[in-house]
Write a structure and sequence with these properties.
Shape: globular
Order of helices and strands: EEEHEHHHHEHE
Number of strands: 6
Strand content: 15-25%
Strand order of the largest sheet: 3-6-5-4
Radius of gyration: 17 Å
Structural class: alpha/beta
């Protein structure tokens, strides 16, 4: 799908174009309206939420395999595709094996983002709904790498960046180096 124009609950119009990240004010009503319009247009939609987004009772490997199976991607193809994407997120082979075996409920916030970014890049023809808080407290390097990975995978996709009002700075809310 190359373009889609939809009407938001406040009466405004939102024009989505493939390969373009379109900004829209976040609200539950807007998110629902955009999701419904994409679904009605036959578009697979993938959310990159500020919180959640993975099945917490499954491992990372199971979450990625399940997502790939939804799109008919065999494990061998998924494994090959992931190998090409891992350097973009600065994951070496040892860190990747550890991450794959980890139950998602035990992931750090940055590792959860890595898994969601990988799933987004691998989901064919998906439209993305990206919460602007997705990178809010991410390690600066991961935020930059994640945004670059999304930009690399954006051509041909519809994408909406759901912007939230600026939050007042709260002590301790920003990313911090973990203690040794």
């Amino acid at each position: 799908m190359s373009a889609l124009t939809l009407t938001l609950p406040d009466g405004g119009a939102l024009a989505l174009r493939a390969g373009q990240l379109t900004q829209c004010a976040w609200s539950p009503a807007n998110q629902t309206a955009i999701s419904a319009a994409l679904l009605a247009a036959g578009q697979v939609t993938l959310a990159l939420p500020a919180q959640g987004g993975l099945l917490s009772t499954l491992s990372v490997a199971d979450n990625l395999t399940l997502a790939a199976s939804y799109h008919g991607m065999p494990w061998a193809e998924l494994d090959a595709a992931l190998a090409l994407l891992l350097p973009a997120l600065a994951l070496d082979a040892a860190a990747w094996r550890t991450l794959l075996a980890t139950p998602t409920e035990q992931l750090s916030a940055d590792d959860r983002r890595r898994v969601l970014l990988l799933r987004a890049a691998l989901t064919p023809a998906a439209a993305w709904l990206i919460d602007s808080d997705f990178f809010a407290d991410a390690h600066p390097d991961l935020a930059a790498r994640g945004q670059a990975l999304l930009a690399q995978a954006l051509p041909g996709r519809l994408a909406v960046w759901l912007t939230r009002p600026a939050r007042a700075a709260q002590p301790g809310a920003e990313w911090k180096e973990p203690p040794p």
